[in-house]
Amino acid sequence: MRILIIEDDEDLNKSLCQSLTEAGYAIDTAFDGENGFYLGSVEPYDAVILDIGLPKKDGLSVIKAWRDQAIDVPVLMLTARDSWADKVAGIDAGADDYVAKPFHVEEVLARLRALLRRSKGHASNLIHCSNLSIDSKTSKAYIDNEYVKLTSHEFRLLSYMIHHQDKVISKTELIDHIYDQDYDRDSNTIEVFVGRLRRKLNTNLIKTERGLGYRLSSN
Length: 219
Ligand code: CA
Hints:
This protein has helices spanning 10-22, 33-42, 59-68, 84-93, 105-119, 152-163, 171-178, 187-201, and strands at residues 2-6, 26-30, 47-51, 75-80, 97-101, 126-129, 132-135, 140-143, 146-148, 168-169, 206-209, 213-216. It is an alpha/beta fold. The strands form 3 sheets. The chain has a 5-stranded parallel sheet with strand order 2-1-3-4-5, with helices on both faces. The longest helix has 15 residues, at 105-119. The mean pLDDT is 91. Calcium ion binds at residues 8-9, 51, 53-54.
């Protein structure tokens, strides 16, 4: 899953980026509303963490402008603790949830997981496809309830596929959602990761759709 963090406080932006990367997300960052708005308009993020008070374009204007353009990426707002007016305005503008500052990063992670699950139509941390399951909270994969050790890149790939199971996913889409902007994007690496996932999971759940991409499906 690929997440955009828009936060002008450099230390906070950096620490969020670090925690979310450790949690297995691909992260892009922006430090003002203008750049953040632009990135969210052109890149296919799975969710955005958006500060309300931003230079150049405030958070509320960013989210309103996206919603006006029918960009419906899930947005988690960061608000000042006591500003109930910000929270109300943010929800009204189209934010999906908020966390008040100062926060524990675990709360941001939990709300982000919930947001991602809801946006993909899943109700719990555990997502299944046949005998495969992943736990989006612990970033672990299981076959027949047996833990399978995956690298963080393999898990990201599998997580994206199982959140979009039964759909054909192109290599470009996978690259867009599992790598951040600065990563050396090479579609050959996707083939290598898929090959390794198939071997490690020892299943035929990941199908190759010739010329189109891949599909994770039990049938
Ligand atoms: Ca701010």
